């Protein structure tokens, strides 16, 4: 299948744990590949050796981490994946899909941990090398449904309180409200195929499908 011409495209998938974003990221990856696009699927934190090691530290329930250290570790993991994977891939014309990016830090560390939002956002610019996603999906879902979708064994972040996740969810909604052009709210309580129909609708506005 001939490759359609397109500008570099960076798409991120966001939402609280259990919202179903990872499944949708994989479906999007397969869909775009089937349409002949060169696509890369990454996850944050992760997708490089250093970033995966940082992920292990961050998610380990036995580790006690201060809020600022947590913030800096997420940004450090981001700086690594951006320099090693995202920037080179975008330069080579690959469509980059990332399961979480800096909106997660705004929502979890900014709103969830109640850190200063301006300070948090200023770190994104450094870590993300000024790269801004072209399109971001925020998968919105009520907490009971999200919690029921998670496995029984929770990691350090997943074991935070209900109030924490309420703030994180509200944080994602505020991001979506403030950046309407870039960030699209998706109703993640719908069946998987319906959720994916919504994604395809937004994708078709960016690239030829
Ligand atoms: P994942 O389970 O979606 O792979 O993400 C790992 C966990 O890290 C998840 O609970 C969300 C959290 N997280 C943050 O708190 N801040 C961030 O910046 C990122 C990328 C993830």
Features of the shown structure:
globular, binds thymidine-5'-phosphate, 5-stranded parallel beta sheet, 52% helix, Rossmann fold, 209 residues, 8 helices, alpha/beta, 5 strands, 13% strand
Structure description:
The protein has helices at 21-34, 49-59, 67-91, 102-112, 117-127, 143-149, 162-178, 192-203; strands at 10-15, 39-43, 95-99, 135-140, 183-187. Helix 3 packs parallel to helix 5 and helix 4 (102-112) crosses helix 7 (162-178). It is α/β, with parallel strands linked by helices and 209 residues long. The protein has a 5-stranded parallel sheet, sandwiched between helices. The chain contains 8 helices and 5 strands, in the order E-H-E-H-H-E-H-H-E-H-H-E-H. The protein has a single domain (9-203), classed as Rossmann fold. Thymidine-5'-phosphate is lined by residues 17, 43-45, 74, 100, 104-105, 108-109, 157-158.
Would you kindly provide a brief summary of this structure?
By secondary structure, the protein is of the alpha/beta class.
How many helices? The count is 8
Outline the low-pLDDT stretches. Answer: none
- Which ligands accompany this protein? thymidine-5'-phosphate
The third-level CATH topology is Rossmann fold
Please estimate the helix content. 40-55%
Major sheet: size, sense and barrel closure? Answer: 5 strands, parallel
- What CATH architecture label applies? 3-Layer(aba) Sandwich
Which helices and strands, and how do they pair?
Layout: E1 10-15, H1 21-34, E2 39-43, H2 49-59, H3 67-91, E3 95-99, H4 102-112, H5 117-127, E4 135-140, H6 143-149, H7 162-178, E5 183-187, H8 192-203
Parallel strand pairs: 1-3, 1-4, 2-3, 4-5
Helix pairs in contact: 2-3, 3-5, 4-5, 4-7
